[in-house]
Each structure stands twice: as structure tokens, then as C-alpha cells.
Prior knowledge:
The structure holds two protein chains of two kinds.
Chain A: E1 7-9, H1 14-24, E2 30-32, H2 38-43, E3 51-54, E4 64-67, E5 70-74, H3 90-99, H4 105-108, H5 113-119, H6 125-133, E6 136-141, E7 144-149, H7 150-153, E8 154-156, E9 159-160, E10 167-174, E11 181-187, E12 197-205, E13 211-219, E14 226-227, H8 229-235, H9 242-255, H10 262-281
Parallel strand pairs in A: 1-3, 2-3
Antiparallel strand pairs in A: 4-5, 5-10, 6-7, 6-10, 8-9, 11-12, 12-13, 13-14
Helix pairs in contact in A: 8-9, 9-10
Chain B: E1 8-15, E2 18-25, H1 30-37, E3 56-59, E4 62-65, E5 78-80, H2 94-101, H3 111-124, H4 130-136, H5 148-162
Parallel strand pairs in B: 1-5
Antiparallel strand pairs in B: 1-2, 3-4, 3-5
Helix pairs in contact in B: 2-5
The complex binds flavin-adenine dinucleotide and FE2/S2 (inorganic) cluster (2 copies).
One FE2/S2 (inorganic) cluster (FES) binds near residues 105, 110, 111 and 144 of chain B.
Amino acid sequence: MKAPPFEWHRPATLAEAVASLAAVAPQDGRVLAGGQSLLPAMALRVARPPHLVDINGIAELGELRVEDNALRIGALVRHAAFHRPVAHGPLGALMAGVVRHIAHWPIRTRGSFGGSLCHADPASEWPLVAVVLGATMQAVSLRGDRLIDGPAFLRGPLETALAPDEILRAVTLPLLPADAHWGFEEVARRAGDFAQAMALVVLRMDAIGRVAEARIGIGGVEAVPRRLAAVEALVNGRLPSATLVEEAGRAAAAACDPMEDAPYRRALVRAVVSRALASAAMPQALAA
Amino acid sequence: MSEDRSLARRVNCVVNGTAQAAEVSVRRTLADYLRQDLGLTGTHLGCEHGVCGACTVLVDGRAVRSCLMLAVQAEGCAVTTVEGIAPDVVTLHPLQTAFAKHHALQCGFCTPGMLTTLLEFLEEVPAPTAEEIRIVISGNLCRCTGYEPIVAATLEAAAVMRGGA
Ligand SMILES: Cc1cc2nc3c(=O)[nH]c(=O)nc-3n(C[C@H](O)[C@H](O)[C@H](O)COP(=O)(O)OP(=O)(O)OC[C@H]3O[C@@H](n4cnc5c(N)ncnc54)[C@H](O)[C@@H]3O)c2cc1C
Ligand code: FES
Ligand code: FES
């Protein structure tokens, strides 16, 4: 089907975009980024915004750079930009490992990092990365800029902390230390489909090989991605082993509260958390 | 901002090497512009919401879903459709030659999207494995071939394009 009629605004600068969105937000005007979620929703007529503020002409939003020990990702940086590592060390490798699970190649060439966060699909990969790695979102409106952290930004399925007149400008991810180990696992019914369950694990080890700091998050299961404090506490201070991997999976299954298909989703959580922890704890998996 | 508010806009772009200028409704997709305004019906529409891959074209060399891009967003861009892949009217592109040889198409509905997706991929990954090819066409549905001939054709075309065979 075709999208319902709308007026299209194409600002050339961020200042123009902010003004344009402020003018149309009261009538449900929306930002158009990569269009890989919004345009299908309009074609299916589940979204009917009468105005679109197209941000694709704003160069600043496509910038990606490392500054102050963090990766600053302009909201419009496309998923495909992460096919190859964008930063030295574990963070660039982690992003390149995760991006392959997002949709398909010709969707990744247009869909954007910021669009994925603003769309806030519980089964999207980037929101999980944002929560586990401690991302900060920078939003802008006529009232100025404000910073929002990952858990506060993601309010629920398809719901964020952004006001209708706010534009997500950039997302900052702290670089991971060189000795950080990570593992990402996802179950989807077909390649490129949204996840039914996924887990991201980031570990730092102490001098004798015990886990000094674990970050363990799940996505695709609850309304928003979340770190599992109970599972992190279980893993911290322990030596990685098959037993620990098994225990962590079981603890994650118990700690989660699935939106649907609870027994099945818990079984998936157990599997993805165990596998992600196992791959993070084995340094040779880092190359992947 | 007043001319920004209109429901139709002028678009200038280059399609398969030819400059095109037209007034289009802003809600017209790039796919409908190519098919209906320019008569380039080689770009196929299966689902119109991003899932089937049949409508994939190259925009400034990048494979994109033409059903998920507005025609007005192609302003200033170079678009290549299946009609523009071959070097001239009598010669096929090596990827097309390999598709024909390996029976990588039957009804041909998925073929334009397969070719455009694979063309960008082979630029970035000139020596892919069969597994990498399977992954990159995972977003292109083919109801005829069972995919194996497409993978075989792509492996052979990659070798030819590298100058190896
Ligand atoms: C077939 C298919 C499969 C997919 N599979 C996956 C998958 O497996 N995993 C996954 O994560 N995604 C998947 N996607 C979605 C894809 O990743 C989208 O690119 C992403 O969800 C939205 O990004 P976008 O840039 O396309 O945003 P758009 O579609 O342009 O916008 C999405 C929403 O966010 C708002 N928005 C966007 N950018 C901003 C901004 N800077 N400021 C304020 N609001 C903004 C828009 O107003 C809109 O409401 C899939 C899409 C398709 C079509
Ligand atoms: S018609 Fe565009 S992906 Fe199916
Ligand atoms: S050849 Fe018929 S759909 Fe692929």
C-alpha cells in the first residue's frame, strides 16, 4: 500500500530541523530518519503523520568520531557504518559483531543508529547495546540540549523519553578498555528477523582470571532491554567455568519477566545468556 | 520554508546514466517513480514494506529498498536499476551471465533485487564465501530456485570479476 498524504519538510541544518519540528509536532509531525521503520508503518497505515521532518540532509547528524575516551555516534549514522570496526579495541569489534544481526544489508545501508533507539522496538539490538554499555543520548529542541541515559531514555515498547518536539542528536558510548571481553547471542526465527531473545555480556577479568566486573543484559524479552543485576552479582568474583555458565543462564531465566510465551522465552534467555557468557569468557572468541 | 510545505516537489536525479527531472508527489516511493513515471518496470514490488527485497536498487552505489525511500529523497543521487547493470545492450554483466549459466532465476521476480544487492556486496567483499553470500541474500526472497544456484552463480561471478576465471 501507499503511505497516506503528508507534507514533507527537508531542513538543511539542525537549527532549521528543530524549528520545523517544533512547528509541526503539535499536529503529530515526526522526524524521518532512515525510514526503515517509519515508512513501512506508513505503508501499512499504522502510522499517519501529517508532516515529516526529513533529517537526511543534515551533515552533522551523520558524523561519527572518538573523543574524550568515548565513541560519539551522530543519530543518522547508518547501521552499515558498523560493518567494519569504527573504533580500535573491543568496542569497534562488538559493534561489528552485533550489527550483522540487524535486518538485512540493504536495510542497514539506510536505517540509522539513532532511528533504532527512537523507534525503541524491544527486539532491536542497538537499544540493548546502549543499556549495557552505558550510553548517553543527546536530545535537542528549541529549549536547548539535554542528556538522557539509556535506561531513562527507553520507556517501553516504541516509547522513549523524547518529547514530540525533540530530535535525538547523538549517542555517546564510553570506549571499552582494551582488556574487556564481550559476547553477543541472539535467537531469531530467520536471519535478519527481530530477535526473540538476545544477550550481551561484557567482562573484565582480574589478574588471576576471575571476573572482576560483569555487565549482562537481555533484550527482546521484556518491554525494554535491561541489565540483570542478580546475574551480574552471581558472576562477579568467580572463575569462568561450564558450571558458572550454566548457573548464570538459569539465574537469568529466573530473573526475567517475559511479555509473552513465558516458558519458551525463559528457555531462550537461559540459552542466550549462557552462550554469550561462554563466548565472552573465551578470549579466542574475541576475534569473531 | 513555504515551498518546503508542498505536497509535490521537483526531483533531479540520474537514473542509469540519464539525467531525469520530474515533479513528483512527496509520498511517491522511489520504486513507484522508477516504475510508473520512468517506465523502468525491471524493479519489482513484492511487499512494499521492506521484507522481500525485490525492489532493491543502487543509490549512489549502495543497495537500498526502493519501496522504503521517497522519490524526493533521490534528489541529486545516481540510481542504478536492473536495466542499468549491463555495460551495453548486447553484453551482460558478469553477474548476469553467471545467473543465466547457473539457472539462478526461474520466474525472475526476485532477480533484480538479488543482482543489485549482490553488486554492492561484491564491491565490498570481492572474494566471499558461500556462507557470506547466503547471509547477504537473506533479505531477498526467492520462491523458485531454492537459492543454491544463486550462491553458485555469485561465487563464479566473483571469480570472474576479480579477473581470476
Ligand atoms: C525487514 C526489516 C527488518 C528489520 N529487522 C531489524 C532487526 O532485526 N533489528 C533492528 O534493530 N531493526 C530492524 N529493522 C528496523 C531498522 O533497524 C530501522 O532502521 C530502525 O528501527 C529505525 O531506524 P530508521 O533510521 O530507519 O528510522 P525511521 O524509520 O526513519 O524512524 C523510526 C522512528 O524514530 C523516530 N526518529 C528517528 N530518528 C530520530 C531522531 N534522530 N530524533 C527523533 N526521532 C527520531 C521517527 O520519527 C520514527 O518514529 C528492520 C526493518 C525492516 C524493514
Ligand atoms: S517491495 Fe520493497 S522490499 Fe518488498
Ligand atoms: S526466480 Fe522466481 S522468485 Fe526467484
